[in-house]
Amino acid sequence: MKTQFLWSFLLPLMAVVIHNVKSQDAEASPTLSEISSMVQDLKNVVDLLANQLMMQQLIVEEKARFDGASGIKQIRMDIAGTRPYHTPSHVRDSVAAYHDHANYDRTVGMGEISAVLNGVEFKTRHNDFKLVMPCTSDESYHCIENIPFPPVPPESF
């Protein structure tokens, strides 16, 4: 459907370009390579216009989505699908791009996100942090200790 829509604009544009080339020099007809080059140039223009149209639509949708509330707008994208709608936006296989670091003790990571909080839009960078808390036995400045792991659940048969 989208391809038909784009070609409905592209074909008349190609006809105008070819007509203009012919009218500039009535004796010389454009060669096949010149026509191929013009068609490729027109395809590039249509690709750029289609990309601009998609980006404008994204901006409008994001503005509508975040004018009235707070929330996660976009998460870290390290994969892409074969179509734009296959790529995750605010949810993927984790919440807010949180992930574990099995190779580091007590370390959790949070990928880049774009969010709105009380009407203010902001972006974060990738963060990895240790699971620690303020000391419970010592009151010195910046004293921290590991967050205790929860108890192992009872074995059930």
The N- to C-terminal Cα distance equals 57 Å
Beta-strand segment tally: 8
Which outline best applies?
elongated
* Overall radius of gyration: 28 Å
Instruction: List the domain count as a whole number.
Output: 2
Roughly what percent helix?
A: 25-40%
**Major sheet attributes:** 3 strands, antiparallel
Output mean pLDDT.
77
Which strand order does the major sheet show? 1-4-5
Weakly predicted, low-confidence segments: none
Proportion of strand residues: 15-25%
Helix-strand category = alpha+beta
Count of helices?
A: 2
Order of helices and strands: HHEEEEEEEE
Report on this structure:
It is a single chain. This protein has 157 residues and is of the alpha+beta class. The chain is elongated and about 90 Å long. Helices cover 37% and strands 20% of the residues. A hairpin with a 6-residue loop joins β2 and β3 (107-110). The protein has 2 domains: 2-66; 71-146, no CATH class. The relative contact order is 0.08. The protein has a 3-stranded antiparallel beta sheet with strand order 1-4-5, with no helix packed on it. It has helices spanning 2-24, 32-66; strands at residues 71-75, 98-100, 107-110, 113-117, 120-123, 127-130, 132-134, 144-146.
